[in-house]
Design brief:
Strand order of the largest sheet: 1-3-2
Distance between the termini: 60 Å
Bound molecules: zinc ion
Oligomer: single chain
CATH superfamily: Winged helix-like DNA-binding domain superfamily/Winged helix DNA-binding domain
Largest sheet: 3 strands, antiparallel
Strand content: 15-25%
Number of strands: 6
Length: 153
């Protein structure tokens, strides 16, 4: 059973976006909790939700996943191979992705970074629910490999 805080957050989201609050949507929070600490595909999420009897049609999940992303319960990670993976969390994430080997690292940004963000939101009147930063580049292994390999013409 999802915590009271999470349920309140979900209800607030549905109220604010004029969407219908359903028990099925509430139960999705339990599935997301079950997957905590892993990165998963939408297929894996669907299989688990179906196994638990919470969702029957895959289309329902495809139609609704964005709500959980917007509400800050899921983060999307856009991998460099064009695929998207998901992670259950508080929706406050900074990822570093290597475009050479597709390695994904989740980092904890410095306190100043968070403060700056909060300040920006206050300045622009946004009540922040979630954030998802993705920084792309080459990891040290790939940088080394690129430098060592001769470039063919
Ligand atoms: Zn790399």
């Amino acid at each position: 059973m999802a915590s009271k805080g999470k349920l309140a957050k979900l209800r607030k989201f549905f109220r604010a976006s004029n969407k219908r609050y359903t028990v099925e949507r509430e139960h999705m929070l339990d599935i997301l909790d079950e997957l905590k600490g892993q990165r998963y595909s939408i297929v894996k999420l669907y299989k688990l939700a179906r196994k638990r009897g919470m969702i029957h049609a895959a289309s329902t999940l495809y139609r609704n996943i964005f709500m959980f992303i917007d509400a800050g319960f899921i983060s999307e990670v856009h991998l460099t191979n064009g695929k998207t993976e998901y992670e259950s969390n508080t929706g406050q994430n900074t990822f570093m992705l290597c475009i050479g080997c597709s390695e994904v690292k989740k980092i904890r940004p410095p306190k100043e970074f968070k403060e700056m963000q909060t300040e920006l939101c206050q300045k622009h009147g946004l009540d922040m629910i979630s954030y998802n930063h993705q920084i792309k580049g080459y990891c040290s292994k790939c940088s080394r490999r690129i430098q060592e390999e001769p470039i063919e013409e």
